[in-house]
Amino acid sequence: MELIALAQGVDLGQLRPLTGQDAGAEMDTRRGKVVVSLQAGVTFRVRICPHPGFAWSEGWTEDLVAAVGVAELWCRGGRLRELHDRFPFMSWDELAQAFEDGDPAAAKWRQLLSSDWHLRDRPLLEAAHAHPDLRLFYPDISMRSLMLSRTPFDMESGLVKITPLSDDHYRVIMWPAAFRRDMTTLNEALDVAVACCRSLPDA
Questions:
Q1: What is the pTM of this model?
Q2: Is 105 exposed, middle or buried (0-12, 13-18, 19+ CB in 10 A)?
Q3: Strand order in the sheet with 43-49
Q4: What is the Cα Rg of the chain in Å?
Q5: Distance of CA 103 to CAs 14, 80, 94, 125, 133, Å?
Q6: Which pLDDT tens digit goes with each residue over 57-101?
Q7: What ranges in 104-165 are assigned the alpha helix state H?
Q8: What is the DSSP code (8-state) at residue 203?
């Protein structure tokens, strides 16, 4: 990658080698990491990762020159649509576009509410989304707990978690404040969650 970048007059900054299952290289940009890894010895996997654990765009190519081109375009401030137009193997979705546009919460709510994977959690999702204060927060589901964060992937900015303990018991936890309360109805849990959200300092 360094030789290709040098030949093209491209500055990718400092490349760090990756070993193990994801062997390849990664580079830092003003908008997160670009990761290029070798798959099955012949294919390169390219990921744009502004946030840990979530790739905004991802693609596979056998052309290392194209992989370097993706990294160079992203380093220069290229946008997701431009990235796909120039390198069609790079895909992205509505949520990634919403992150780039600066309003990911609404897209994530739509994703969760329409997902068959979360059918069991849909009553909780729908009830939480009905509260104007709660649907402003970025939602996610983990182990059946609904987590509402002010800033995605940043717990320190404020997070409220609603966990179903049984059909008629719920627990609300707020972070970073050491707050935890158990309730016997969903409506009560949501009211407490709203109060927690309102008590968080503005970002």
A1: 0.85
A2: middle
A3: 16-18, 24-29, 32-39, 43-49, 57-61, 91-92
A4: 21
A5: 31, 15, 11, 19, 15
A6: 999 999 999 999 999 999 899 999 999 999 999 999 999 999 999
A7: 104-114, 122-129
A8: -
